[in-house]
Design brief:
By secondary structure, the chain is α+β, with helices and mostly antiparallel strands. It contains four helices and six strands.
Length: 169
């Protein structure tokens, strides 16, 4: 396994829709391992292959503790509800924005062994997968943000949430 460089938002590869993976081989498996390691090292919760310079339809996500997803050629089959949430991105460091996303989705894909999978997720896991699927389509969260948020504003919101949480204890 090896760490890969995460491309920044002005790199042209991030704006080109990725290609479908037609064959799972050792190079794809190595890429997946590298993506997982790179995502964790960068303290991210998701990563698309084109973010590390490979224009293939592969995403990895870590939507919860000790939970890793590998989705190859993902397709959203069903989506419902909408929710506004704050997002950031490993390819757009230091920037945050409010993005409207579906709250619950059903996605079909191949797992890392090439077996068809169908998953239904909601809340944060759905947001992470949709964010990464946008990357695979050449779209950044900044394209969809209804409002960009100043990092200082984000800090004050987080501090306010912490105070509210402490008050509830």
């Amino acid at each position: 396994m090896a760490l890969r460089q995460i491309l920044n938002n002005n790199h042209p590869v991030l704006r080109i829709p990725t290609q479908e993976v037609k064959k799972l081989n050792s190079a794809v498996q190595n890429l997946i391992d590298d993506m997982i390691e790179t995502m964790h090292e960068a303290e991210g919760v998701g990563l698309a292959a084109n973010q590390v310079g490979v224009s293939k339809s592969i995403l990895v996500a870590c939507p919860g503790q000790d939970q890793e997803l590998v989705l190859i050629n993902p397709r959203c089959e069903k989506a419902e509800g909408e929710e506004l949430g704050i997002e950031g991105c490993l390819s757009v460091p230091g920037e945050y924005g409010q993005v409207l996303r579906y709250q619950k989705i059903t996605v079909s894909a191949l797992d890392r062994e090439g077996k068809p999978v169908r998953i239904e997720v909601e809340g944060l896991p759905a947001r992470i997968i949709l964010h990464e699927m946008d990357h695979l389509a050449g779209v950044l969260f900044t394209d969809k943000a209804v409002r960009m948020i100043d990092p200082e504003e984000l800090k004050s919101e987080q501090q306010s949430d912490e105070i509210k949480s402490e008050e509830q204890i």
